[in-house]
Design goal:
Helix content is 56%, strand content 0%. By secondary structure, it is an all-alpha fold.
Length: 87
């Protein structure tokens, strides 16, 4: 898996650099939450491109979202499963 996220060491400060490609491939839900919480706009766009918008929504839906994650999900995906934002 070749992704721009593989080179974003600041997003994955707590894992060994050589394991980042494996984490991207095998832990997508963790990656999505990490990127939505700590990533830049470009990082969020990259994770949506990497996994696809529907899969990203499914992963975000699978666990509670922090406020920043919820905001980014709404802004990037118009995704608001808990109804926090009036549309």
């Amino acid at each position: 898996m070749n992704s721009v996220l593989e080179h974003r060491r600041s997003l994955f400060w707590d894992i060994a650099e050589e394991t980042i490609p494996s984490v991207l491939a095998h832990s997508p839900a963790w990656v999505v939450h990490r990127v939505f919480e700590y990533g830049s706009i470009a990082d969020i766009d990259a994770v949506i491109t990497l996994y696809g918008p529907e899969k990203v929504k499914d992963m975000l839906r699978s666990s509670p979202m922090k406020p920043v994650t919820r905001s980014m999900a709404f802004l990037f995906l118009e995704f608001d499963p808990q109804g926090y934002y009036a549309v």
